[in-house]
Amino acid sequence: MKITIFTSNNTRHNYYINLLTNYCSELFVIQECMTKFIGKKKDYYKKSKIMEKYFSYVDAAQEKIFSGDYVKYNKKCKINFLSMPMGDLSYYNLNKLKDFLKSDLYLVFGASFIKGDLINFLQKKKAINIHAGISPYYRGCDCNFWALYERQFHLVGTTIHYLTKGLDSGPILYHAVSEFHSNPFMFSMSSIKSAFFSIVKKIKTKEIFKLKSTKQNNLLEIKYSRKDDFNDFVTRAFLNKFKKEKIKKVNLDRSVLKDVFILSKNNFYK
Predict the structure, then answer these.
(1) Does the bond joining 184 to the residue before it have cis omega, within 30 degrees of 0?
(2) Which pLDDT score is estimated for 41?
(3) 178 burial type by CB count under 10 A (0-12 exposed, 13-18 middle, 19+ buried)
């Protein structure tokens, strides 16, 4: 099987890349790169001390969950890379990407908003996106942050859906979440790992090509967050809130989720 993935360059993205090499004969990686020094350097997020502090917690959780269980790529899998700065993807025409568009399966996680001929192509190919948030309840940017901030703990997770022209609006295949964790950063990051595990499991069984989708009900939307909503004020409030108290054990009602895949605590670091 040949797989093409559109992704980014952080630890979790590289983990996903390496994991996929164990489930295909050839992997085509289109990787948009952003700074590793969020908060220290202006990039997608602004430069500020509070952003630097917040993302130090994000990085710590990410390193614990992914670096501690680093998956080496399978050398039997042929891997092809095309790297570019974050946001450049939609400036490429299909002809420039043609060598990367001959796969059996197309996956998206952490790429910039895809537009133009490329989104038309990927929509026809039924590309599958991981949205770090639970749609249709939370759509847009930094969705798990907002679910935690608003104490909607049962809506911390990921949505696996078909890619469409709308942001996080494609038909839902299923949701992937983790078991409860009192550390909000670990709780959020482990749901990403749940998405990875669920997808490779379904690739292995070929179930990935047989999944039934459900149209999103926009009337259920709680928040459509934009980049500018995630600012120093709410970030400081978030850190103060969870510094005083970790998330208390709650009953997570997952009945609103579709065909939910749950990552157990035993698999957080495996």
Answers:
(1) no
(2) 78
(3) buried
Q: And the tokens for 181?
A: 């964790």
Q: Is the pLDDT of residue 248 over 80?
A: no
**Closest to 57 in 3D by CA, of 250, 197, 240, 228:** 240
187 vs 190: CA distance, rounded Å: 5
Picking from 87, 119, 97, 92, the residue whose alpha carbon sits closest to that of residue 8 is 87
Query: Does the pLDDT at position 216 exceed 70?
Result: yes
pLDDT for 244 equals 62
pTM above 0.90, yes or no: yes
DSSP 100-152: GS--SEEEESSPPPP-HHHHHHHHHTT-EEEESS-TTTEEESSHHHHHHHTT-
184-204 helix and 49-66 helix, angle to the nearest 10 degrees: 40
Per-residue pLDDT of 95-132, as tens digits, reads 999 999 999 999 999 999 999 999 999 999 999 999 99
Task: Give the number of other Cβ atoms within 10 Å of residue 206's Cβ.
Answer: 9
How far is the C-alpha of 166 from the C-alpha of 64, rounded, in Å?
Answer: 33
Dist CA 10 CA 259 (whole Å): 28
The answer to whether the beta carbons of residues 187 and 181 sit under 8 Å apart is yes
Cα 51 to Cα 58: distance, rounded to the nearest angstrom: 10
Q: pLDDT at position 68, please? A: 62
Judge whether 247 and 153 are in contact, CB under 8 Å.
Answer: yes
238 Cβ contact list (under 8 Å, min separation 6): 54, 145, 148, 149
Backbone torsions φ then ψ of 35, nearest 5 degrees: -65, 150
